[in-house]
């Protein structure tokens, strides 16, 4: 074993939360998500919207990263980014993805899988100008996921943009916008004692949601 290796087989944690009763689930997974999301916002409001976004390119190579949920409704779950970023390029090649919410304090996670589409230019523009000025400048200055010589280069770009648009609204870059994941499958997971976790899957079939309990 190398000097940098680690053995974590003896590391343990126990899950102690109450489980999910079959009759406690609502028929609509969006409503079920809303119930859990509202609780997460009460327990940890600063982190409730963090979600892992998993994509894969046309070769099938997966990649995952944390992004922030910005809004959701019955049409899907939305976030914003640079279309030329690694995730943007992957979604252009393979417009399918999965998002994962994990709320540590509640011992809960939700996986949502489906196809992805771009939001409209108007939606992107509205949200872009709701962001703090610093976030607007950073998005306009940075070509996300592309190599850069140094941090100083980025800081100089930001300074130039700030000077250029001192008295004007910063335009939303054409390469920047939003995506919406349109769900085809949800999985609600609740940690339980002895790893006998509760898992429920909502699967879309002929425009109806089928609910199934999954083995842990």
UniProtKB/TrEMBL annotation:
Entry's Gene Ontology BP terms: pyridoxine biosynthetic process
Organism: Neptunomonas qingdaonensis
Protein task: Catalyzes the oxidation of either pyridoxine 5'-phosphate (PNP) or pyridoxamine 5'-phosphate (PMP) into pyridoxal 5'-phosphate (PLP).
Example of a GO MF term: FMN binding
Pyridoxine 5'-phosphate oxidase dimerisation C-terminal domain span: 176-216
NCBIfam families according to UniProt: pdxH, PRK05679.1
Family statement drawn from the similarity comment of this UniProt entry: Belongs to the pyridoxamine 5'-phosphate oxidase family.
Catalytic activity reported: pyridoxamine 5'-phosphate + O2 + H2O = pyridoxal 5'-phosphate + H2O2 + NH4(+); pyridoxine 5'-phosphate + O2 = pyridoxal 5'-phosphate + H2O2
Cofactor(s), by name: FMN
Pathway linked to the protein: Cofactor metabolism; pyridoxal 5'-phosphate salvage; pyridoxal 5'-phosphate from pyridoxamine 5'-phosphate: step 1/1; Cofactor metabolism; pyridoxal 5'-phosphate salvage; pyridoxal 5'-phosphate from pyridoxine 5'-phosphate: step 1/1
The EC number(s) this enzyme carries: 1.4.3.5
Keyword Hydrolase belongs to the record: no
Pfam families registered for this protein in UniProt: PNP_phzG_C, PNPOx_N
Alphabetized UniProt keyword annotations: Flavoprotein, FMN, Oxidoreductase, Pyridoxine biosynthesis
Binding site for substrate: 12-15, 70, 127, 131, 135, 195-197
PROSITE patterns: PYRIDOX_OXIDASE
Domain Pyridoxamine 5'-phosphate oxidase N-terminal positions: 47-163
List of residues binding FMN: 65-70, 80-81, 87, 109, 144-145, 189, 199
Listed InterPro entries: Pyridox_Oxase (IPR000659), Pyridox_Oxase_CS (IPR019740), Pyridox_Oxase_N (IPR011576), Pyridoxamine_oxidase_dimer_C (IPR019576), Split_barrel_FMN-bd (IPR012349)
Gene3D superfamilies (alphabetical): Electron Transport, Fmn-binding Protein, Chain A (2.30.110.10)
Self-association state and partner proteins as the record states: Homodimer.
Protein name: Pyridoxine/pyridoxamine 5'-phosphate oxidase
HAMAP family: PdxH (MF_01629)
Cofactor details (free text): Binds 1 FMN per subunit.
């Amino acid at each position: 074993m190398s000097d940098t290796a680690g053995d974590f087989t003896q590391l343990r944690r126990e899950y102690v939360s109450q489980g999910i009763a079959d009759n406690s689930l609502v028929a609509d997974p969006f409503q079920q998500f809303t119930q859990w999301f509202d609780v997460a916002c009460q327990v940890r409001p600063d982190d409730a919207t963090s979600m892992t976004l998993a994509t894969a390119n046309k070769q099938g190579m997966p990649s995952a990263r944390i992004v922030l949920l910005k809004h959701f409704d019955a049409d899907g779950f939305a976030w914003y980014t640079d279309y030329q970023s690694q995730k943007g390029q992957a979604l252009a090649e393979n417009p399918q993805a999965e998002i994962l919410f994990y709320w540590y304090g509640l011992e809960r996670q939700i996986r949502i899988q489906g196809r992805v589409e771009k939001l409209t230019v108007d939606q992107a523009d509205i949200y872009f100008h709701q962001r703090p000025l610093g976030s607007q400048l950073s998005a306009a200055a940075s070509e996300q996921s592309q190599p850069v010589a140094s941090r100083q280069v980025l800081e100089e770009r930001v300074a130039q943009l700030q000077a250029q648009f001192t008295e004007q609204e910063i335009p939303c870059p054409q390469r920047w916008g939003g995506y919406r994941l349109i769900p085809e499958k949800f999985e609600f997971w609740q940690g339980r004692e002895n790893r006998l976790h509760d898992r429920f899957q909502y699967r879309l079939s002929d425009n109806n949601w089928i609910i199934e309990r999954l083995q842990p």
